[in-house]
């Protein structure tokens, strides 16, 4: 039972990209509520994450690590699940900001600035966090996205898709209007041979 609720809770946290999803699919879910009532620690972890209390959430995770490792089914996945939750917390923490003080961020995540940089680097390289690190001033800057260029690219892509669909509809209309049909007769050896008739 404990492993079931723990795996469910740990799996939901990193997979949900928005707090609204966490609210609707986990906290407000009647089936998940029953599991949370049975395991108050997991409930605290989920609610701490939801309230953006990442330090508390991660502290609860690490304090229960020894118990998690004793579980036969959960133990091989404990470190991976905790890492995913920590990564999701880092992404969620920075998402509303244009820049963040890495000193405060390190305090919130109970780690040193160097450890924080090491954690942020792969997330930035993977594109999970759109930012750059100012190591000298210890500031995390959000990358400026050119909204105009992005809108133009999307519009161009939609235009090409519309053109492709329009050509397909015109071709289909011409085929129907001219009563063109494709018949697939079967030859003596059992292979299909196509022929076009009008």
What's the total count of β strands?
Answer: 5
Secondary-structure element order, N to C: HHHHHHHEHHEEHEE
Neighbour order of strands in the largest sheet: 1-3-2
The dominant shape is: extended
**Could you tell me how far the N terminus lies from the C terminus, measured between alpha carbons in angstroms?**
67 Å
Radius of gyration: 27 Å
Percent of residues in helices: 55-70%
Largest sheet, described in full? Answer: 3 strands, antiparallel
Structural class: mainly alpha
Number of helices: 10
The low-confidence runs, each spanning 5 or more residues with pLDDT under 50, are none
User: What is the domain tally?
Assistant: 3
* Average pLDDT metric: 80
Keywords: Cytoplasm, Nucleus, Signalosome
Main location: cytoplasm
Domain PCI: 1-147
Pfam families: CSN1_C (PF21151), PCI (PF01399)
Please give a quick description of this structure.
Helices cover 64% and strands 9% of the residues.
List keywords for this structure.
two-stranded antiparallel ribbon; PCI domain-containing protein; 10 helices; 5 strands; mainly alpha; signalosome; 3 domains; extended; 3-stranded antiparallel beta sheet; single chain; 198 residues
């Amino acid at each position: 039972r404990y492993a079931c609720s723990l795996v469910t809770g740990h799996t939901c946290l990193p997979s949900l990209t928005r707090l609204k999803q966490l609210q609707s699919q986990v906290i407000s879910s009647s089936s998940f509520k029953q599991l949370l009532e049975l395991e108050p620690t997991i409930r605290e972890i989920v609610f701490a994450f939801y309230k953006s209390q990442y330090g508390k959430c991660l502290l609860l995770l690490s304090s229960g690590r020894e118990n998690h490792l004793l579980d036969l089914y959960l133990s091989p996945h404990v470190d991976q699940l905790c890492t995913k939750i920590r990564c999701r917390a880092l992404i969620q923490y920075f998402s509303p900001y244009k820049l963040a003080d890495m000193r405060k961020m390190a305090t919130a995540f109970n780690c040193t600035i160097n450890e924080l940089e090491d954690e942020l680097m792969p997330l930035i390289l993977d594109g999970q966090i759109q930012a750059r690190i100012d190591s000298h001033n210890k500031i995390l800057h959000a990358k400026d996205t050119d909204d105009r260029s992005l809108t133009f690219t999307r519009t161009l892509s939609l235009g090409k898709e519309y053109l492709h669909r329009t050509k397909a509809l015109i071709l289909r209309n011409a085929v129907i209007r001219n009563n063109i049909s494709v018949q697939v007769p079967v030859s003596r050896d059992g292979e299909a041979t196509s022929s076009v008739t009008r």
